[in-house]
Amino acid sequence: MNLNQTVVVSPEVISQEVSGETVLLDLKSEHYFGLDEVGTRIWQLVQECGELQAVYDTLLAEYDVAPEQLLHDMEKLLTAIQTAGLVTLDGASSQSSTKS
């Protein structure tokens, strides 16, 4: 993952927020996925703009977290939902992220 990429949500995914958490349903596989409060916020931002740099910057401003930890956590979640086919990462894949 690098922060110059954009996230595209699969048209086969529907989501519903319930009590601060989000349930994702992949209509293609009929599998459910649950997101905690932070995962829900990442999902909201991805749906709003899709640009990883904007998602990262917003989360860094909203949460008391080290930049490296945030990058790690975003990468972990996005890799999981990408592997599940819920999203794709597009663009600038050959450029490095802001992680040093």
Per CATH, the class reads: Alpha Beta
Query: Structural class of the secondary elements?
Result: alpha+beta
Order of helices and strands: EEEEHHHE
Strands ordered across the widest β-sheet: 2-3-4
Low-confidence stretches: 93-100
Report the mean per-residue pLDDT as an integer. Answer: 89
Largest sheet: 3 strands, antiparallel
Can you walk through the features of this model?
The chain is an alpha+beta fold. It has a single domain (6-90), classed as Alpha-Beta Complex (Outer Surface Protein A, domain 3). It has helices at residues 37-48, 52-62, 67-83; strands at residues 6-9, 13-18, 21-26, 31-35, 87-90. The strands form two sheets. Strands 2-3-4 form a three-stranded antiparallel β-sheet. Helix 1 (37-48) crosses helix 2. The longest helix is centred in the C-terminal third of the chain and has 17 residues, at 67-83.
Give short descriptive properties of this protein.
single chain; 100 residues; alpha+beta; Outer Surface Protein A, domain 3; 3-stranded antiparallel sheet; two-stranded antiparallel sheet; 3 helices; 25% strand; globular; disordered C terminus
